[in-house]
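Project standup — Tuesday

K.O.: blocked on the structure for the chain from last sprint. Re-posting the sequence here as requested.
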Amino acid sequence: MRAGGFPEEQVRARARTGAAEAFPPVESYGHEVFGQNSSGAQVAADELDAARLVPPVFMPLRLEKLIDLGREPLQSDVDLTTAVGGFTSALPVFLSAFGSTRIGSSEVSVAASRQAGALGIPMVIGENVVPVTGYRREPAATTGMLARVRAYLDEAGPSLGGVVVQQSTEDADAEVWNLVYSDPAAEPLLASGRLGFELKVGQGAKPGLGGLTVLDRDTAARVSDQFAIDDLWSGPGVLRSGSPGTFTDEILRQQIRFMRNNFPRARIWVKLHPGRDVAQAAACAWEAGADAVTVDGAEGGTGWAPRAFLDHVGLPLAECLRRIGTPSGCLLATGRMWEGGRAVKALALGATAVGLGRAALTAVDTDPEHGLRRLVECLAFEVQLLTSALGKYTPAALSGEDVWFPGRSGAADPAPRHRESLT
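H.V.: unblocked you, prediction finished:
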């Protein structure tokens, strides 16, 4: 019985099973995707969803477009081609990182790679793929790093999109970037300027934590000197926790310089969790030469994580964008992106492109051949409609004046945002 909102059933579950209740059910590990409010706790309303797009009455940019075309402009005249982190993308969209869980490392990830290539949008390959599956041995041959790269290249055109390989502290031990950079399979990407490396500093699903994996007891015993091992469940699985790495502004600068010096043909991305100093961290990354900074809002992340983190830790994406303000480099935003309204709001608030994570996994799981393409086609159509309604004809023209937040007087900061040039 619940009295005054007290979560009696959740308390009883903790009384029965102890620390295991800090996580979603262990049997869901690798089979389901998670995100904010996964356990049903009451959380604050999403400010980005609550915001409204506000078209003006007078539209000087529409007049300019009318004169250029010699007719009234339509939504089909909105050009969605966007420079994203050093790549040319057909849309202001990229495929967010899928990691090494059973979902992320399954045929779903290869199908998603194939469709992302066909769409001409960049794709991020997530952390722990090589440490978990290996690089050339099975099962990596069919669902691992190289399988995803090959699937992407099989469908990609000669110039659009790109592949970004993420590296965490565990991937660094496996020298993932070195493996990819020196592999002949990656040469088509290098030759066309479409290979990138992303330093993972954090993730929206679990800010401040490293990789969390469920291992069998024998495997856990072999790595107990490298990781924290917690025996939380009565079954064969135990929790293995890694470190997210330690960063200061100088450590981040040095890491980016290392990446640029050692991999000069690759684009450099940095992924940040939604921390309170996210603006300082993003500015530091751009100053050090990062081609893109991805901010994963607290709504973001497909990773398995403690319930308390999913429901209570990290800044919402809208607050991250507000704190960053006018970005001095390419800013990428992720966090429950799946439709055009939320995407256009993020673009107007400074993002260059938005990342599809859980939505992409769901779409590909629904239809492995066409699901992601259809999802993105719908999103792109909505972005064209909304951008045209605002009297603008490229995503780069969107700005804070196009967004109104309930409870605030006036629009958001109308200052123009930093945008990459396509030339």
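K.O.: great, moving the ticket to review. The longest strand covers residues 93-98. The first helix runs from residue 8 to 17.
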